[in-house]
Amino acid sequence: EGNIEDGLLLNVNGGVFFEFVRAEEIHHENPKRYRLDEVEIMVSYAVIINNNAGLWGSKLGDTIEFVSLNPYRLIFTGRTEHFLSAFGEHIIARDIETALVQCLKTQSAKINEFTVAPKVQTKDGGEPYHEWFIEFDVKPIDFESFIKTLDYELGQLNFHYKELVEGKIIGPLRISVVSKGAFRQMMKEEGRLGGQNKPIRLANNRKWADLLDPYILEKHSI
Fold it and tell me: For position 161, what pLDDT does the model report?
């Protein structure tokens, strides 16, 4: 099944017993593990390995999706620690990156860097939301249209998020525009400047959001 031209071929005869946990369940206390014969195409899994060298139930930290089951081929989709599920939305890095790419196909804007964090408590007591910190090279002409398009694209990729927004459990995303060079300066201050370090695209906390807060130029919502 699937397109065998894509993805990496999984070595199933190398002394490793592979198990897989659905990415949205990896941080549960007792997530269900799936054998190779139980996995499905285009479902995001965290990889668990057991081998004859002594590893048992070891988490690789990567998330993958199978693009073929005969033979088993997979693509990497992110890291298990890079996820956002403050409200049960189970969003991974690929979701937000793909949504942004789709949004930029129809919106006149260019982006240097971005990260996303949950805003659980609001000053006005309104609905919580996702806050996107974006460093634009070229700002959108119409922020309302940009936000609506980005929110829609994310909902198309992640039905959990779509249901939460439609059910008014969370509000539509909001954008905080940061100054040019903000991400680089923030990385420098954190001692993480260099080719081996990249900004985290999303997190389940506001550590990076708080570091970027002094660089906010303007905020936009719908």
Answer: 93
| Chain segment 14-38, per-residue pLDDT in tens | 788 989 988 777 777 788 999 999 9
pLDDT recorded at residue 180: 94
Are 2 and 66 a contacting pair, CB within 8 Å? yes
Question: Between the CA of residue 81 and those of 59, 60, 86, 210, what are the distances in Å?
Answer: 11, 11, 13, 19
d(CA 92, CA 201): 9
- Maximum CA extent, the chain: 58
Is residue 134 within 8 Å of residue 175, measured between CB atoms? yes
Cross-strand pairs, 59: 48
List own/partner pairs for 61-66 with CB under 8 A and 24 or more apart: 63/23, 63/92, 64/20, 65/41, 66/2, 66/7, 66/39, 66/40, 66/41, 66/42
Sheet holding 129-138, edge to edge: 110-119, 129-138, 174-178, 216-220
Mean of pLDDT values over 173-190: 91
122's tokens? 């609001």
| Residues 147, 172: Cα–Cα separation, whole Å | 8
Helix spans in the chain (H): 93-104, 143-157, 159-166, 182-189, 207-212
pLDDT for 82: 67
**Distance between CA atoms of residues 150 and 169, nearest Å:** 18
